[in-house]
Amino acid sequence: MRHAFCNTRMKFVAGAVLLSLASVSFAQSATLVGGGATLPAAGYAGNTANRLMTPSTGTLLAAYGSANGVGTTYCQTGSGGGKNILAGSVSGFNVNAACDGTSPIGFGGTGLSQPHFVGSDSPLSASDYSNYLAGHTATGAQPVQAPAVAGAIAVVFNKPQVRALRLNESQVCQIFSGKIKNWEDAALASAIVPMPGQTVTGPIKIAYRSDGSGTSFAFTNHLSAKCGTDATFGGNGQATQFQTNQDYATAAAAYLSSYSSSVGASGNPGVITAIGANQGSIGYAETANSVQSGTQRASISNDSAATTFVDPATFGGPLPVTVTYDKIIGSNNAAGRPQLASLSPAPAVAQCVAVVDPAAYAVPASGYPIVAVSYFLVNAKGNGADLAHVQSLLISPYNTTVRSNVTKIGAGQGLSFLTAPGIDSSFASRCVTQ
């Protein structure tokens, strides 16, 4: 599905021309250890039921491994945990710590000094960059970041009396600000298609991510940009008080007390589990998790086509994007919107931290309206004998041979490949050097 983004500061490149990157064969066999974001995990590695994932057929990492003679593992820590492990300086997080429990603090590595790669749905922030530099003072390494895929964030729910939920963006804002507290609220009536003979009533419990989450970053990136007066109630004096943040409790701090009730959970699979355990609940999660689990999800209209309700699973791309280099996420402005800031101190090698401005996908001009951009992050140095593998993995989402063998990213999965001019083999070899 073609999906248009709008942004006053950057324009997306028209068309969807895939970069033709030749697959490279390696004689050496290795296993690359990575993890992080749960949003793209189904597309990267497959079944998300287990925190530590071995890629299955049709996934990006399996296709990459087959093309390049290398194995991979992927641990679902969440984006924040993944970036903490990459940094190497955040207490409690270590690449060799176990990948288990509800909030893993490691990737399950053995004898590694650093991870081979990290996935994150929130780009590097100022604090992430500072943590990374603190953890790599001895080597002088810098992080390398490239956009990898995009994903649709689904509004998921558990209400057996509801056959279909068709939300407009105003209703999404009112639900997550606590303005709509109950299923029988008159403001929600137009969205509900009940099961035959059923009456839909009861309080709404909000399910949200309790961990550092790129899904939360992208979801609140949309809410802070879109909600406006739809989230205004109780005389708070502002158009919206949503903040863009990878911590949902921080992002929605002004509204948490307005919910009828709420429950936090770690990882997109954790939110899906919480939804399943709480009838009447509504939350947000990556679409692929709802597809795998069979969890109910809403169709949502974009304000540009208010009567067309879009199932997020139809999101498929590929999407053309434009990147900006050597920028990180700085502080939010007064409206809760994230602002790009220059890397400080400046990196030794320029144009190796590539970011898509969150403003560019906060309010898509058409199509499904709640979208995340997910990134691969690697180390510029310290890769040793795995250097060539790390270089090729970084740009594997743009490798035409790899893409041709991926079935878990595309329409029906809620995930999309990107086209990002400049993210190619030259980028990888210039930025990942040791």
From TrEMBL:
Gene3D superfamilies: Periplasmic binding protein-like II. Residues 1-29 form the signal peptide. Pfam families: PBP_like_2. Transmembrane segments: none annotated. InterPro entries: PBP_domain, Phosphate-bind_PstS. Keywords: Signal. The keyword Magnesium does not apply. Residues 60-382 form the PBP domain. The keyword Signal applies. Belongs to the PstS family. This is Extracellular solute-binding protein. It comes from Luteibacter anthropi.
